[in-house]
């Protein structure tokens, strides 16, 4: 059965609230530790989440034009705009946008991808553990495997390997199999090499070469 739109936003809001709770007890110095996003600190990723939570369809398109259609440049500007003078200021900005339902021109499940993948970009380097809703992870994984690489997905990759979640009812793709936790599969197809150590199967070699 398909989940209605409101349920997706409930999952997004729950993940934002959980991240805020984790960040509230974080020492300010740890905000400057490198995240899993190359070149971004934990503080930068939080600022990015503030930016994406504020982003509307029209605002995204206008920002992309201003960035001369440089998507990475647009993200960098968003981080610079939403990063506060202190971690606590940025955290307060995240609190203020936590219940928003605005989205860029992308599938709604992309909001789950943002919260889950970037949640791990922050938590894993800090040694923080979080139990994500199974549905949020699987919906994110399904979207990533349907999205072309040019938009940050793994559509082309799953034409060469089969992904199978060991802890959930998810499998897709053709070729040698890669199995492991659904969250680790999601991180791997999103370019996070740290998740490779959680995966096994003959397709891991192909996956490793691709990210």
Helix content, binned percent: 40-55%
Q: Give the terminus-to-terminus CA distance.
A: 33 Å
Give the tally of β-strands.
Answer: 3
**What about the largest sheet?**
3 strands, mixed
Q: Please state the structural category.
A: mainly alpha
Beta percentage is: 5-15%
Point out poorly predicted stretches. Answer: 1-5
Describe the structure.
With 211 residues, this protein is mainly α. It contains 9 helices and 3 strands; from the N terminus they run αααααααβββαα. Strands 2-1-3 form a 3-stranded mixed beta sheet. Strand 1 and strand 2 form a beta hairpin. Helix 1 packs antiparallel against helix 5. The longest helix is centred in the N-terminal third of the chain and has 20 residues. The two termini are 33 Å apart.
Short note summarizing the structure:
This protein has 211 residues and is mainly α.
Keywords:
211 residues; three-stranded mixed β-sheet; 9 helices; 53% helix; disordered N terminus
Describe the secondary-structure layout:
Elements: H1 5-24, H2 42-54, H3 57-66, H4 71-82, H5 87-97, H6 110-126, H7 134-146, E1 162-165, E2 171-173, E3 177-180, H8 182-189, H9 204-210
Parallel strand pairs: 1-3
Antiparallel strand pairs: 1-2
Helix pairs in contact: 1-5, 1-6, 2-4, 2-5, 2-6, 6-7, 7-8
